[in-house]
Design a protein that fits this description.
By secondary structure, this protein is mainly alpha-helical. Helices cover 82% and strands 0% of the residues. The protein is globular, with a radius of gyration of 14 Å.
Length: 104
C-alpha cells in the first residue's frame, strides 16, 4: 500500500493539479484504513475541481463511516447536482442509490 502512495506522490510532483491522481491517492488511504487522510484529500479535490464527480461518492462514504451523516447527505446531494450537470447518469444513479440508502 505504501509503495502505491509513494508512487502517486511522485506522479503528483509532475502533475500537482491532476484530480485523478489525487483521487487515486485518496482511495489508497481508504484501503489503508486512513479515512481522515482520505477525507482530507477528497475534500480538497472537490474544492478545487467541483466537477470531478467521481469523488463525491467516496467522500460521502468516508463521512458516513466517520459518523457525519449530515455532511454525507450534503455531499451526495451536491454530487447528484454535479453529475446531472455533467450528463453523467451512471454517477448520478450511484449517488442517488447511496443517498436513498442513507436517508431511508
Amino acid at each position: 500500500m505504501t509503495d502505491r502512495i509513494e508512487k502517486l506522490k511522485e506522479f503528483l510532483e509532475s502533475s500537482p493539479g491532476d484530480s485523478f491522481l489525487h483521487h487515486a491517492m485518496a482511495l489508497e488511504y481508504v484501503k489503508a484504513g486512513d479515512d481522515n487522510e482520505a477525507g482530507r484529500i477528497f475534500e480538497q479535490i472537490l474544492q478545487k475541481d467541483p466537477g470531478y464527480v467521481g469523488s463525491y461518492y467516496h467522500f460521502a462514504r468516508v463521512l458516513e463511516r466517520q459518523g457525519n451523516r449530515a455532511a454525507a447527505i450534503k455531499t451526495y446531494e451536491r454530487g447528484m447536482l454535479e453529475a446531472k450537470a455533467a450528463g453523467d447518469q451512471h454517477a448520478y444513479n450511484e449517488l442517488q442509490a447511496a443517498y436513498e440508502d442513507l436517508i431511508y
